[in-house]
């Protein structure tokens, strides 16, 4: 059983794109916005295709980490966490300004939790 609320990022196990492993990728609408704001995620050198494409350094980088969790009745799960590191403060602030509502939505309890807490 899993609960996945993907408001910003896609699945943890993201395949490589254009020969560059991003570790994970944002959802399509966020990818489009980042591409318009920061440029393509991969860049081509002047002598492309003789030299390979490379990662756009203006794009955020990701560090995934997992944490094992033990529940009642010896049920074990894995929780995934991601740190998104922006190249500069201005990019981070622009991202927050544009996607603040979705980030807040991801941090709010679900309606079911709200109903159960008000019923108590």
Describe it for me?
Helices cover 32% and strands 20% of the residues. The strands form 2 sheets. The protein has a two-stranded antiparallel sheet with strand order 1-2. A two-stranded antiparallel sheet has the order 3-4. The chain is α+β, with helices and mostly antiparallel strands.
Helix content: 25-40%
Query: What's the order of the H and E elements?
Result: HEEEEHH
Largest sheet: 2 strands, antiparallel
The rough form would be described as extended
Average pLDDT rating: 75
Could you tell me the radius of gyration in angstroms? 18 Å
Neighbour order of strands in the largest sheet: 1-2
Q: What is the overall number of helices? A: 3
Report low-confidence residues grouped into runs of 5 or more.
12-23, 111-120
By helix and strand content, what is the structural category? alpha+beta
Number of distinct beta strands: 4
- Report the end-to-end length measured between terminal Cα atoms: 26 Å
Beta-strand residue percentage? 15-25%
